[in-house]
Write a structure and sequence with these properties.
Layout lengths: L1 H26 L6 H8 L3 H7 L3 H21 L2 H6 L1 H18 L1 H12 L8 H27 L12 H18 L6 H18 L4
Amino acid sequence: MARRTKEDALVTRDQILDAAEHVFQRRGVSRTSLQEIALEAGLTRGAIYWHFQNKADVFDAMLQRVTLPMQASFNGQPEAEAADPLGHLRRNVATAFRQTVHDQQVRRVFEIASHKVEYVDELQSLRERHIGERAACLVDLDRLLALALERGQLPPHAAVQGANVGLHSLLDGLMHNWLLNPQSFDLEAVGAQALDTYLAGLAMASKR
């Protein structure tokens, strides 16, 4: 019976997050109330409070449900990363862009996070989380570029100092602009080309 109760709780939690995705996408996060999410899910507001403290907690869980598997994939291949850091980077970027284009849930969640959330009132805590995630991503990119330098995938004079910031801005900007208008360009093709062009630029630039 306890196992059944735990399984039911997980189903209800996913039901709430599914509903939150759709309401956040329609109305924006700041304009959405927990009551609206409860109505969308066919539950009471009390059921939401059983699983989540507040709306920011719901948003955070919604985002983690999509991003945590991606992060696990990116950081869960130490052998591939060590042997071929730039190949590892290209494969993971390609996977993230492909999932954004073809997986409706991933696209919906990233659209909400990019264009449907304001860091106001009770959502201020999300800004700190966003900053923390960006910092972690910069650390990962910096590590990969340093490994590429060590493995000879980039020449000794490659300008990798601070290059992680530019690379993150490039990839994040591509995603942000594509989500604004998915018909404007091919995210997968343009993303791969832009990444290769950036890495080629690092190889050509001299360290100063």
